[in-house]
Amino acid sequence: MKQQLLIVDDNEMMRSFLAHYFSRHYLVKIAGSAKEAWQWLDEGSFPNLILLDLRMPDVDGLGFLKQLKCSVLFNDIPVMILSNISKTAEKVACLQAGASDFVSKPFNPKELEIRIQYHLQTKRV
Q: Closest by alpha carbon to 78, among 39, 103, 51?
Protein backbone atom coordinates (compact mmCIF):
# COMPACT_ATOMS: atom_id res chain seq x y z
CA MET A 1 0.00 0.00 0.00
CA LYS A 2 1.27 3.46 -0.90
CA GLN A 3 2.18 5.88 1.85
CA GLN A 4 0.33 9.19 1.95
CA LEU A 5 1.73 12.70 1.65
CA LEU A 6 -0.17 15.84 2.60
CA ILE A 7 1.01 18.89 0.67
CA VAL A 8 0.02 22.23 2.23
CA ASP A 9 0.85 25.20 0.01
CA ASP A 10 -1.19 28.22 -1.07
CA ASN A 11 0.51 28.32 -4.49
CA GLU A 12 -1.62 26.32 -6.92
CA MET A 13 1.23 25.73 -9.37
CA MET A 14 3.46 24.36 -6.61
CA ARG A 15 0.67 22.08 -5.31
CA SER A 16 0.01 20.77 -8.81
CA PHE A 17 3.68 20.17 -9.53
CA LEU A 18 4.31 18.34 -6.25
CA ALA A 19 1.11 16.29 -6.57
CA HIS A 20 2.00 15.26 -10.11
CA TYR A 21 5.62 14.46 -9.27
CA PHE A 22 4.91 12.41 -6.15
CA SER A 23 1.68 10.68 -7.23
CA ARG A 24 3.70 7.96 -8.94
CA HIS A 25 4.93 6.61 -5.61
CA TYR A 26 2.58 8.07 -3.00
CA LEU A 27 -1.06 8.82 -2.34
CA VAL A 28 -1.12 12.62 -2.43
CA LYS A 29 -3.58 14.95 -0.74
CA ILE A 30 -3.27 18.67 -1.36
CA ALA A 31 -4.49 21.57 0.76
CA GLY A 32 -4.31 25.25 -0.14
CA SER A 33 -4.30 26.47 3.45
CA ALA A 34 -3.70 25.38 7.02
CA LYS A 35 -7.46 25.52 7.60
CA GLU A 36 -8.10 23.13 4.71
CA ALA A 37 -5.37 20.79 6.00
CA TRP A 38 -6.88 20.77 9.50
CA GLN A 39 -10.33 19.99 8.09
CA TRP A 40 -8.90 16.97 6.29
CA LEU A 41 -6.96 15.81 9.37
CA ASP A 42 -10.01 16.28 11.59
CA GLU A 43 -11.95 13.92 9.29
CA GLY A 44 -9.68 11.14 10.56
CA SER A 45 -6.93 11.22 7.97
CA PHE A 46 -3.34 10.44 8.98
CA PRO A 47 -0.71 11.18 6.34
CA ASN A 48 2.70 9.56 6.66
CA LEU A 49 4.43 12.89 6.01
CA ILE A 50 3.48 16.54 5.49
CA LEU A 51 5.15 18.93 3.04
CA LEU A 52 4.43 22.40 4.38
CA ASP A 53 4.94 25.88 2.93
CA LEU A 54 5.75 28.65 5.42
CA ARG A 55 4.20 31.68 3.78
CA MET A 56 0.44 31.21 3.64
CA PRO A 57 -2.53 33.47 4.36
CA ASP A 58 -4.38 33.21 7.67
CA VAL A 59 -2.34 30.65 9.63
CA ASP A 60 1.24 30.49 8.34
CA GLY A 61 3.25 27.30 8.12
CA LEU A 62 5.04 27.82 11.44
CA GLY A 63 1.72 28.35 13.21
CA PHE A 64 0.31 25.19 11.64
CA LEU A 65 3.46 23.25 12.59
CA LYS A 66 3.21 24.40 16.22
CA GLN A 67 -0.48 23.42 16.39
CA LEU A 68 0.29 20.03 14.86
CA LYS A 69 3.12 19.30 17.30
CA CYS A 70 0.82 20.18 20.24
CA SER A 71 -1.74 17.64 19.04
CA VAL A 72 -1.72 14.23 20.69
CA LEU A 73 -3.05 12.65 17.49
CA PHE A 74 -0.77 14.25 14.92
CA ASN A 75 2.48 15.19 16.67
CA ASP A 76 4.39 12.14 15.38
CA ILE A 77 3.82 12.96 11.70
CA PRO A 78 7.09 14.11 10.09
CA VAL A 79 6.78 17.64 8.68
CA MET A 80 9.12 18.92 5.99
CA ILE A 81 9.14 22.66 5.41
CA LEU A 82 9.36 23.90 1.81
CA SER A 83 10.03 27.61 1.65
CA ASN A 84 11.68 30.39 -0.28
CA ILE A 85 12.67 31.91 3.07
CA SER A 86 16.39 31.41 3.45
CA LYS A 87 17.06 33.18 6.75
CA THR A 88 18.83 30.95 9.23
CA ALA A 89 16.66 32.24 12.09
CA GLU A 90 13.49 31.09 10.27
CA LYS A 91 14.98 27.66 9.61
CA VAL A 92 16.05 27.31 13.24
CA ALA A 93 12.59 28.36 14.46
CA CYS A 94 10.97 25.67 12.30
CA LEU A 95 13.37 22.96 13.44
CA GLN A 96 12.90 23.98 17.09
CA ALA A 97 9.12 23.80 16.59
CA GLY A 98 9.45 20.19 15.47
CA ALA A 99 10.02 20.23 11.71
CA SER A 100 11.87 17.15 10.48
CA ASP A 101 13.58 19.03 7.67
CA PHE A 102 13.75 22.38 5.87
CA VAL A 103 14.14 22.52 2.08
CA SER A 104 14.62 25.87 0.37
CA LYS A 105 12.76 26.76 -2.82
CA PRO A 106 13.71 26.40 -5.57
CA PHE A 107 14.62 22.78 -4.92
CA ASN A 108 15.69 19.74 -6.87
CA PRO A 109 12.69 17.35 -6.97
CA LYS A 110 14.93 14.28 -6.80
CA GLU A 111 16.66 15.62 -3.68
CA LEU A 112 13.27 16.29 -2.11
CA GLU A 113 12.17 12.76 -2.98
CA ILE A 114 15.27 11.28 -1.32
CA ARG A 115 14.71 13.39 1.79
CA ILE A 116 11.06 12.25 1.96
CA GLN A 117 12.13 8.61 1.65
CA TYR A 118 14.66 9.12 4.44
CA HIS A 119 12.10 10.61 6.84
CA LEU A 120 9.54 7.93 6.05
CA GLN A 121 12.08 5.17 6.69
CA THR A 122 13.28 6.82 9.89
CA LYS A 123 9.71 7.11 11.18
CA ARG A 124 9.07 3.37 10.74
CA VAL A 125 11.96 2.40 13.01
A: 51
SS (H, E, C) the chain: CCCEEEEECCCHHHHHHHHHHHCCCCEEEEECCHHHHHHHHHCCCCCCEEEEECCCCCCCHHHHHHHHHHCCCCCCCCEEEEECCCCHHHHHHHHHCCCCEEEECCCCHHHHHHHHHHHHHHHHC
User: What confidence tens digit (pLDDT) does each residue in 43-82 have?
Assistant: 999 999 999 999 888 888 999 999 999 999 999 999 999 9
Q: Identify the domain containing residue 64 by its residue range.
A: 4-124
In sequence order, which residues have a C-beta less than 8 Å from that of residue 52 and are 6 or more positions away? 8, 9, 61, 64, 65, 79, 80, 81, 82, 99
Domain count, the chain: 1
What is the CATH number for 119? 3.40.50.2300
Record the pTM: 0.95
